[in-house]
Write a structure and sequence with these properties.
- The structure is a single chain.
- Helix content is 35%, strand content 18%.
- With 555 residues, it is an alpha/beta fold.
- Strands 1, 2, 3, 4, 5, 6, 13, 14, 15, 16, 17 and 18 form a 12-stranded mixed beta sheet that branches. Strands 19-21-22-20 form a 4-stranded mixed beta sheet. A two-stranded parallel sheet has the order 7-10.
- Helix 14 (350-368) runs parallel beside helix 15 (386-399).
């Protein structure tokens, strides 16, 4: 059986100008990065502003398990299937991060015969967007520490600084550090740390920007800390936003690639779904909607994380109106949520499927919380039995949720035609989408509403430190912002060990900070970390390159 990277290497992609032509993009609006990828000028959005928007389809998933769900694979395969049915379609997804690529999760370009290509490029440096975001973030950190070293004219309280540095790699040793050691020439000693680039506010605000002017305005609003009078200190105060926007001048332009079957695909931006808002850029999504009749996009991890933030942050910011949401699951994962150990998933167990359906049921409820009707996609595995599929069918019928078996990993678009038919039928109906809470609610009430609605918790508790931070954030005038809860992806709760559908519990918010440039307030639940670590045997240990330049080990 071929690996994902081997399948991608056997592909014979079209020249990227042929892909852009399918969308009606002129060659003069492209900046080519070789034959198979290009950046698209922001002018395309303005040129097509009068076009009627296409239908926006979200792909989300159940709570992740080690058994795998295949959300990106389903997203890509669904796009290919819609195109195979003769419709105008475009895919819009996030860029992968080097951290999980070399860590435990692997790449994020789909899998099998439902991939975006060039797979290796997309999973590695791609067009350099993540490097630009990392550089812009760290430029602000450098200017901040230099300002303090040069006399601190802004009277910054160094104990209030919330701006860390970032890198696009899993590195637990850098989570908590002290900078400025070694004498006066090396700056003011203070406690700090590193986050992963995908958790950077610069990543988030770039993905939420509407154009370059909006980008620079958002950059200028970034709060790095407080002065000794308790007022915010921003990137504008440090005269940093102009230089930061220069570093991001190309990164803000969407990246155009294609699937194995030649479906146009924007791959742009990459905030994590558990520690950030988990969606690709507004610019790429808007461009896709202007250029195609159907746009298939995804949000990170389960509906409790990426989808909730897609609904309450991205759609609200951009004025998007999705028409339906596909909830991806596998029978293997449902059995894990039903209590079956990973090693025993090969044995048929319809009762475990029926028990694990509780998790799927909650994610379908989450989609309905915002006025949409869910469609379930079961990513097919060879070990799935007729008895297990029958148990799933019976449960979906009880929930009044249509479902389709998806075999896009093995068959590409041809394996997703049944799912595509359900999605196209849903797209004929009017969207009744609405965000899950009004912005006028106090910040604590927003968190409590998300905890109850999307996690199934009884309520949310706030540590004294978090309560104090939230009160301060509201006093500074940021109480009207939406919230972005950072929590584990492995459970609906804030405890990664509670699988299935946890009940009779409360979540704990331990910290809060404002991301004024991005336009939301981050709340940290449980023990979630913004700088992951590597596993005992990292994926990097199996990755290499042959003498002819061919990469192996990526997945």
């Amino acid at each position: 059986m071929l690996t994902d990277v081997e399948i991608a290497q056997q592909a014979k992609p079209k020249h990227i100008t042929a892909i852009s032509a399918e969308l009606g993009i002129c060659e003069e609006d492209l900046e080519l990065y070789g034959k198979n990828k290009a950046k698209v000028s922001l002018d395309v959005v303005e040129k097509r502003a009068s076009n009627r928007d296409g239908k926006l389809i979200l792909v989300t998933a159940i709570t992740p398990t080690p058994a795998g769900e295949g959300k990106t694979t389903t997203t890509v395969g669904l796009g290919d299937a819609i195109r195979k049915l003769g419709r105008s379609v475009c895919i819009a997804i996030r860029e992968p991060s080097l951290g999980p690529c070399f860590g435990v999760k692997g790449g994020a370009a789909g899998g099998g015969y439902a991939q975006v290509i060039p797979m290796a490029d997309i999973n590695l440096h791609f067009t350099g967007d993540f490097h630009a975001i990392t550089s812009a973030h760290n430029l602000l950190a450098a200017l901040l520490d230099n300002h303090i070293h040069q006399g601190n004219d802004l009277d910054i309280d160094i104990h209030s600084i919330i701006w860390k540095r970032v890198m696009d790699m899993n590195e637990r040793a850098l989570r908590d550090i002290v900078v400025g050691l070694g004498g006066r020439a090396n700056g003011m000693p203070r406690q700090s740390g590193f986050d992963i680039t995908t958790a950077s506010e610069i990543m988030a605000l770039l993905c939420l920007s509407k154009d370059r002017q909006d980008l620079e305005e958002r950059l200028s609003r970034v709060v790095v800390g407080l002065n000794k009078s308790g007022q915010t200190v921003t990137a504008r105060d440090l005269q940093a936003s102009g230089a930061m926007s220069v570093l991001l001048k190309d990164a803000i332009m969407p990246n155009l690639v294609q699937t194995l079957e030649g479906t146009p695909s924007f791959v742009h931006g990459g905030p994590f779904g558990n520690i950030a808002h988990g969606c690709n850029s507004i610019i790429a999504t808007r461009m896709a909607l202007n250029l195609a009749d159907y746009v298939v996009t995804e949000a990170g991890f389960g509906s409790d994380l990426g989808a909730e933030k897609f609904f309450d942050i991205k759609c609200r910011t951009a004025g998007l109106m999705p028409v339906t949401a596909v909830v991806v699951a596998t029978i293997r994962a449902l059995k894990m949520h039903g209590g079956v150990a990973l090693a025993n998933l090969g044995a048929s167990d319809p009762s475990a499927v029926a028990k694990g359906i509780e998790n799927l049921e909650k994610h379908c409820e989450n989609v309905r919380h915002v006025g949409l009707e869910p469609i379930v996609a079961i990513n097919k595995f060879p070990t799935d039995t007729e008895e297990e599929i029958a148990a799933l069918s019976e449960c979906c019928a009880k929930m009044s949720v249509p479902f389709a078996l998806s075999d896009v990993w093995a068959k590409g678009g041809a394996g997703g035609l049944e799912l595509a038919d359900l999605v196209l039928e849903a797209c004929k109906k009017e969207s009744h989408f609405h965000p899950s809470y009004p912005l006028e609610l106090p910040l604590k009430e927003k968190a409590e509403r998300i905890a109850r609605k999307f996690y199934g918790a009884d309520c949310a508790d706030f540590t004294p430190a978090a309560a104090k931070q939230i009160k301060e954030i509201e006093s500074l005038g940021f109480g009207h912002l939406p919230i972005c809860i950072a929590k584990t992806q492995n459970s609906l709760s804030d405890d990664p060990k509670r699988i299935g559908r946890p009940r009779d519990y409360r979540i704990t918010i331990r910290e809060a900070k404002v991301s004024a440039g991005a336009g939301f307030v981050v709340m940290y639940a449980g023990t979630i970390m913004t700088m992951p670590g590597l596993p005992r045997v990292p994926a990097a240990a199996k990755i290499g390159i042959k003498p002819d330049g061919e990469i192996f080990g990526l997945f």
